[in-house]
Amino acid sequence: MITYPQIDPVAVSLGPLKVHWYGLMYMVGFAAAWWLGNRRADKPNSGWTREQVGDLVFYGAMGVILGGRLGYVLFYNFDKFLADPVWLFEVWTGGMSFHGGAIGVLVAFGLFARKTGKRYFDVADFMVPMVPIGLAAGRLGNFMNAELWGHPSNVPWAMIFPTDPMQVPRHPSQLYEFALEGVVLFLVLWFYSARPRPAGAVTGLFGVGYGLGRITCEFFRTPDVQIGYLHGGWLTEGMLLSAPMVVIGTAMVIWAYRRHQPGATA
């Protein structure tokens, strides 16, 4: 067993103002996307300017925050929302959903494409390789908050989290998600997108990669207490929401390559 590092979830306290590590991790993700996007925009004939990258990161950030909050409320705590609709706006109490944030970002891509006159998948394929860095940062934030821990386990790297009422060694599932949904997915997408690909292929690969990584990690992660397990006692809400990403992402990759075969109609 590995001792969980004692981490104060509050990074900075300035009187009544408290800045949490989890919030800072969001800033790290947005800053990384901006920096990486600028690197690609600076390449000859990229079709992008630094100003456009900055605008797109802003659009994406709004999609993440608004979509993530709405997704958490609708997918994970709808009963609480019905009992207290004002709770939707109490973002300081915590609660964000990746799948809601993903929907928000997809909408943001569409709004940005409409504003700039770019094709939708030119925008999406440019941006999604940078997204896993933000996912990795977010999972580190979960780890620092000692939340979303895994099932009890006797593996050598199991940890006892201070927020666990049972105080038993558990899988550090946040770090599993950091590795699969963050580091591994970033490397796959970054190198795959380094060469020209059919429109939509990079975005589709993101869906496949994230969906598979999230479903895998869900087998080690304790489900949200207000939902628990779904059908059969093994299916989780995260699995249910991620499975369509794998199916749709696979279909998108196949469609992208078939559409761009010699003789295909663009």
UniProtKB/TrEMBL annotation:
GO terms for biological process: lipoprotein biosynthetic process. It holds the Pfam family LGT. GO terms for molecular function: phosphatidylglycerol-prolipoprotein diacylglyceryl transferase activity. It is found in: Cell membrane. Keywords: Cell membrane, Lipoprotein, Membrane, Transferase, Transmembrane, Transmembrane helix. Its EC number is 2.5.1.145. It is a multi-pass membrane protein. A 1,2-diacyl-sn-glycero-3-phospho-(1'-sn-glycerol) binds at residue 139. One of its GO terms (cellular component) is plasma membrane. InterPro entries: Lgt (IPR001640). The chain crosses the membrane at residues 19-36, 56-76, 96-113, 175-193, 239-257. The keyword Membrane applies. It comes from the Bacteria. Pathway: Protein modification; lipoprotein biosynthesis (diacylglyceryl transfer). Catalyzes the transfer of the diacylglyceryl group from phosphatidylglycerol to the sulfhydryl group of the N-terminal cysteine of a prolipoprotein, the first step in the formation of mature lipoproteins. HAMAP family: Lgt (MF_01147). Belongs to the Lgt family. NCBIfam families: lgt. PANTHER family: PHOSPHATIDYLGLYCEROL--PROLIPOPROTEIN DIACYLGLYCERYL TRANSFERASE (PTHR30589:SF0), PROLIPOPROTEIN DIACYLGLYCERYL TRANSFERASE (PTHR30589). This is Phosphatidylglycerol--prolipoprotein diacylglyceryl transferase. It comes from Alcanivorax hongdengensis A-11-3.
